[in-house]
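Known limitations

Structure tokens in this collection are predictions and should be treated as such. Users comparing against experimental data should check residue numbering before alignment. To illustrate the layout, the record for Alanine-anticapsin ligase BacD is reproduced below. The input appears on top and the generated tokens appear beneath it.
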Amino acid sequence: MEVYDINSSPCLLVIGAREHTLQKLMTMQVQFVLIQSQLDPLTEYLVENIVFVDTYENLSEISQIAENLHQAHHFRAVVSFTEFGLYPAALIAEQLNIKGNAIFPVDHTRDKLKMRCLLKKHQLDSIVYQNCRTLEDVYAFYEQIKAPFILKPAHGAGSQGVFYVDAVENITKAWNWATQLDNQELIAEEYLLGKEYSVESLSLDGQHQIIAITEKLTTEFPHFIELGHYSPARLTPEIQQKIQQIMLQFLDIIQHQNGPAHTEIKVHQGEIKMIESQTRMGGDQIWELTELTTGVDVISETVLHLLGLSQKTRNKKENAAAVLFFAREFEEILDINGLESANNLPGIVRIHCTLKKGQKFGKLSSSQSRQGYILGTGHDIDEAISTVHLAMEQVQITTKVHQD
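Generated tokens:
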């Protein structure tokens, strides 16, 4: 890899950022300019070089802004670690002829239909699926498979619009749920049996490394909203090796070039099935679990690689880590106590809780509906899981039933 002198101060263009991303960039002391959607406010980390746009979907506007900024800053690379900034970043990398990820891997993971077609073409997966543009398409799919299936937006994120269908009478309800945000293209996929995991990886110039496999805890059907993550996953060495082999094939097939990937899978009777993938780091603090337990900081390593700077030494801090989410629904919060004592328990890294007296919650509809998390560590995964569950039990939440 070509290494540049850090004194030459290469500049990075960032498309969309969370506060933890900006914190890392400022800790690294790299020069960067941020293009940020007005819909993604930043409260803690204010940066001087920031340009706000209404939405990441206006590609012509973002491309023009990037081109104008490039004249002044001479960007060496462009990157995004957020779902809706991935495609604009890849497009800008191509247009400005600078380092970044390619359009193909982003397009073929953001679009779940394209990903399924690609997997089928390369015989990496064999599940039954169908593009559904109308309610009639969904009924036809059910008649075809006569088995439970998942209906979800083809370009969705954060468990939004996901619905499990196991009977014909649930199809209209599923359609209404999946199209509630936008009457967009849907995909119907046969329901996969087994336990769910996510695979965290890092690619640098097309060279892939499988970093971690994380175990998932979700709500039951019909929506499967994530309630917790445990890292490392409790899997046999044989299954871990099988997952790694399939993932390396997958990353080659989608032609992933630069940056992390977060891929959801299911394991059933020794078989590995792909659910979906994103060319970004895992949300839900999975990136933090991974960093704690492996020492791999995917943000820093991606940025340093793209800018041609020397990589830092990896520093594993913990053997295992877990995160558990506050996920109240159909309740009014009357009182909440015990947060401070829970936060002081051994192994607790952080408690972030947005619950307040007087809040009223309806149905838990997506990951965005949750109300914070507890993150903890342990000498092994069982201890880490016990740590966060014990802390959750220490938080005393008094409620009464609330219906929308």
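For this record: The first helix runs from residue 19 to 28. Residues 11-100 form a domain with the Rossmann fold fold (CATH 3.40.50.20). Please report discrepancies through the issue tracker.
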